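Deliverable D5.2: sample structural annotation.
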Amino acid sequence: MSYKTEYIWTCKIGGPAIQFQSGADAPMRQAVQAAFKHVTGNDEAFCFSGWGGELTEIERAIVENRLPSDERAAVQAAQPEAVGDGATIAGLESAVGHLSAMVDEQRRLLVEVEQVCGRDAYGIEFEDGDSELIDKVRTHLAATTDPDAAINAPRNIHE
């Protein structure tokens, strides 16, 4: 098991383009610094931030709810220094997080579908084979992890 000597948290946040007033960096930077201290119990040793960042092709594809362009993603992967290895990894972690959140929400919806639609007119739960759709929902639910149960599972953050 290896321990890191420092932790670096990377975030990209954005929205529609607007005209910024002078000093628009300060509130964002102060909020992140306060959150860092709250989470870690320590003041930050450094904080690089500012307006003008760019999304990688993978990040842009997530924002636009589409698959990444293979050509642009391949160029960025072949030239990690163009976006920075840390930014690339953070972007991929963000993509995985985004997709995981979507899967978790879809699983919650399927649980609700099974509870509401998985019963006959008398409120009795369908048995296997009574409904092809409910059978598929149950098969999917059995193959996925309940996100609410996974939250409480112990994790080693130093791996």
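Annotation notes: Residues 85-117 form the longest helix (33 residues). The radius of gyration is 22 Å.
The annotation will be released with the project's public dataset once the embargo ends.
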